[in-house]
């Protein structure tokens, strides 16, 4: 194994162990030296790759958000019509809040640890652009009334983020079903022609 491959393997091992611990214990309970020890490297190696516990956490959040964006895109692509794609993607985003890793890392800890602005920027990079593309297509197809897409994207994204944050803290088994119904009503209100 070359030195570059060793560095990449060490970074990936730290990322995987950090992700496991952040998901299980929460950001504040994780100690970077313990993460390093668990993967058999020095604390200095962990600092070399991520500079700090916050740096490791930021990398983990980016990875989980990227995977969430892919999950939402895959759910949308499983459907043929643009309206059904939008609805499926939105439902997949909300359902992801029940994934313990997404819930703890992305929805509960990331806004508090990284701050709202950074968390929002990372969310936009991973999923909001897909939403904007879907809404643009629906406006161009005349399914949604002609309107500026950027504010519509932000309104819908904000509503779904708030709903996902609420779902992450909601213990009730019916919370997701109720939220999906509310989302469907909201989306239907955007349609020019009701199905």
Automatic annotation (TrEMBL):
Record keywords, A-Z: DNA-binding, Transcription, Transcription regulation
Note the SUPFAM superfamilies from the entry.
Answer: Homeodomain-like (SSF46689)
Q: Which PANTHER family match?
A: HTH-TYPE TRANSCRIPTIONAL REGULATOR BETI, HTH-TYPE TRANSCRIPTIONAL REGULATOR RUTR
What residue ranges does this record give for the DNA-binding region?
31-50
Q: Which InterPro entries does the entry mention?
A: Homeodomain-like_sf, HTH-type_TetR-like_transc_reg, HTH_TetR, Rv0078-like_C
Specify whether ATP-binding is a keyword of the entry: no
Query: Could you identify this protein by its name?
Result: TetR/AcrR family transcriptional regulator
The record places domain HTH tetR-type at 8-68
């Amino acid at each position: 194994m070359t030195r570059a491959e060793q560095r990449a393997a060490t970074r990936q091992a730290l990322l995987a162990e950090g992700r496991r611990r952040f998901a299980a214990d929460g950001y504040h309970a994780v100690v970077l030296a313990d993460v390093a020890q668990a993967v058999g490297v020095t604390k200095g190696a962990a600092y070399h790759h991520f500079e700090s516990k916050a740096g490791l956490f930021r990398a983990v959040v980016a990875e989980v958000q990227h995977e969430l964006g892919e999950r939402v895109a895959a759910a949308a692509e499983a459907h043929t019509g643009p309206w059904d794609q939008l609805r499926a993607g939105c439902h997949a985003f909300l359902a992801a809040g029940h994934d313990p890793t997404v819930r703890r890392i992305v929805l509960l800890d990331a806004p508090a640890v990284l701050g709202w602005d950074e968390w929002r920027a990372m969310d936009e990079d991973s999923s909001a652009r897909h939403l904007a593309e879907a809404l643009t297509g629906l406006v161009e197809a005349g399914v949604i009334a002609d309107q500026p897409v950027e504010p519509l994207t932000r309104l819908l994204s904000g509503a779904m983020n708030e709903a996902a944050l609420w779902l992450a803290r909601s213990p009730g088994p019916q919370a997701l079903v109720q939220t999906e119904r509310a989302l469907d009503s909201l989306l239907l209100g955007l349609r020019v022609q009701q199905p």
